[in-house]
Amino acid sequence: MKPRGIFITFEGMDGSGKTTQMHRLAERLRSMGRTILETAEPGGPPIAQKIRRILLDSANQELSPATEILLYFASRAQNVDQWIGPALARGEIVLSDRFTDSSLVYQGVGRGLGIDAVGELERIACRGLKPDLTILVDVDAEASLARAWARNEAQPHCETRMDDQAIEFHRKVYQAYHALAAAEPERVKLVNGRAAMDAIEREVWSIVSAHV
Ligand code: TYD
Q: Model pTM?
């Protein structure tokens, strides 16, 4: 069997604090001497970053749902081929801020493109690569939007296309994340995103430490 690292993803609504938690986990694992690849989707290697700019540009309001999902998977395919796959083959721990589950809940359910469409694109882009563990940092739609708006006011020029979406869309996404956690309880672990940062960090570590 070829050596394989561990693939851990962080999921959650916009403004859930998952990015901070992922960085904290990365630092902890590095301090233990582990080699970590950190990536965030949409994005990763330079080509995927260029795709990210198209996706999150608030000027691109007319981006169609089909174009949007194809671009998320185009970004992901490049990330899998160029960064994630090779790092796992080297036996490293890969941490990704969002992965296919985001496409499932935002495009498949939120935009109504369907779970089957996501599965087909996943087959092409990821070729069977699934996370070993997914940390779902749980905040509800209202808290997510409140945090995202606060962040936008602090940085008015940041990428905001998704944050402009209505509360209804975010509620659908929230429900889809919960359905996913219920369907795959072994892989998808819920942590309470409304707790204090340090408490969330401890909860994340209690889950991850069993896997690394
Ligand atoms: P980002 O700026 O990375 O925000 P966050 O901190 O919330 O991750 O923006 C990513 C946005 O892209 C976010 O609103 C969710 C959305 N998204 C999808 O709709 N589908 C996807 O497959 C991915 C990876 C992200």
A: 0.94
